[in-house]
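Q: what sequence does this backbone want?
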């Protein structure tokens, strides 16, 4: 008998599309828009970047509530609300000329806009639809984010330079409306709501291995918060994310400070994006076959080596080494989202995964915000990026140790029904 196409693969497609649009519109294009906006309106750089900061904080605040809604109602209403709000915000951003309006719109967008169809929402949903193929599908879905870093900067720069930044914001509104609004209609909470089984397993042909996999650990948010693994994973990935963003944001300035041209620096960042994109399926493959904590060690050991090579390329003024280093950095960087989502679902189960990720997400966001700021501050003090980048290597080593110390809870708590 032929098996029907498993609906969970539509969730994978929807996840990739949502993450592409979220990353393209809320983060990647910010750097493209910044210079033309501040030059026309006479703003300061910090005023523009403050808008991005409050957007990230808004997403961190709303995640606590959003996570519980994913568990109880599913992602459809969240993704649709986020798409409608984002569309209106981008249209308004294209018409405003006031800094207070600008910051307010970015605050709303972060709070109930693009964060509602971002990685946390769609990856939690993916983890509910897949168990055995979870690592693979999360990696495939997160390729949407990586694609945004590869495709968007060049194309969007051409558009903004030709048609102006206001039309650039209108284009972002159009992108959200035509991709995310239709995609929201595909999104579903979990397979059990529709008489399906995770991974598309046939009810009559379930293997013993799958029966052993399904009775997973299912902790509530309150139970997870009382465990050491929750805090080890959360703090570890917050430190890792802070270090990664410190290098990513200051990569081009480092290249310029080291005597490389802007073209070489920009090429290095593009290669970083290509490495990030191409490595995603590879990490997904290994997540299905190797202990997750060993992959943590492999990914961030590679990233630490890459940062060392970045520093060495600056000392030697070696452009080829710089490109190789950023390629390796991108490969290590690409493991972050799949690892974080996979290990959280693996350790704490599907039933309350949204609420648990909603509790950890604010701390991870703090790392995303503070990492680039501290890196920039240290550069201002030392007048070189060397001590800051060396410190990031230390941060990676400490974070690896903290994360590796987290062991999966042994007690199976399965008191929650997946149907309502």
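A:
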């Amino acid at each position: 008998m032929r098996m029907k196409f498993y609906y969970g693969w539509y969730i994978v497609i929807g996840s990739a599309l949502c993450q592409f649009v979220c990353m393209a519109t809320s983060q990647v294009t910010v750097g493209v828009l910044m210079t033309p906006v501040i030059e026309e309106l006479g703003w300061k750089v910090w005023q523009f970047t403050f808008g991005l900061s409050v957007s990230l904080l808004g997403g961190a605040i709303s995640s606590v509530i959003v996570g519980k809604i994913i568990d109880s109602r599913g992602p459809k209403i969240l993704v649709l609300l986020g798409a409608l709000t984002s569309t209106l915000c981008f249209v308004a951003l294209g018409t405003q000329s006031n800094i207070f309006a600008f910051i307010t719109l970015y605050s709303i967008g972060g709070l109930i806009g693009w964060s509602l169809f971002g990685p946390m929402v769609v990856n939690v949903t993916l983890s509910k639809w897949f168990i055995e193929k979870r690592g693979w599908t999360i990696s495939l879905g997160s390729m949407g984010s990586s694609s945004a870093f590869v495709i968007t900067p060049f194309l969007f720069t051409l558009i903004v330079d030709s048609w102006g930044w206001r039309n650039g914001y209108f284009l972002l509104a159009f992108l959200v409306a035509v991709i995310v609004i239709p995609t929201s209609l595909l999104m579903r909470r979990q397979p059990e709501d529709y008489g399906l089984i995770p991974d598309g397993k046939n009810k009559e042909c379930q293997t013993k291995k799958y029966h052993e996999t399904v009775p997973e650990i299912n902790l509530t948010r309150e139970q997870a918060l009382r465990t050491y693994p929750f805090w080890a994973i959360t703090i570890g990935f917050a430190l890792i994310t802070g270090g990664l963003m410190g290098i990513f944001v200051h990569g081009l300035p480092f290249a310029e400070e080291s005597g490389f041209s802007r073209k070489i620096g920009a090429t290095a960042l593009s290669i970083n994006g290509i490495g990030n994109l191409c490595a995603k399926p590879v990490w997904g493959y290994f997540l299905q076959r190797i202990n997750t904590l060993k992959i943590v060690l492999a990914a961030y050991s590679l990233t630490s080596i890459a940062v060392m090579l970045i520093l060495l390329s600056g000392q030697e003024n070696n452009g080829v080494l710089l490109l190789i280093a950023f390629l390796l950095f991108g490969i290590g960087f690409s493991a972050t989202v799949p690892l974080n989502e996979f290990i959280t679902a693996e350790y704490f189960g599907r039933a309350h995964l949204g609420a648990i990720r909603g509790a950890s997400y604010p701390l991870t966001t703090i790392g995303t915000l503070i990492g680039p700021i501290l890196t920039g501050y240290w550069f201002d003090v030392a007048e070189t990026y060397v001590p800051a980048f060396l410190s990031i290597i230390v941060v990676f080593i400490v974070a690896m140790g903290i994360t590796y110390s987290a062991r999966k809870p042994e007690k199976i708590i399965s008191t929650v029904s997946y149907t309502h």
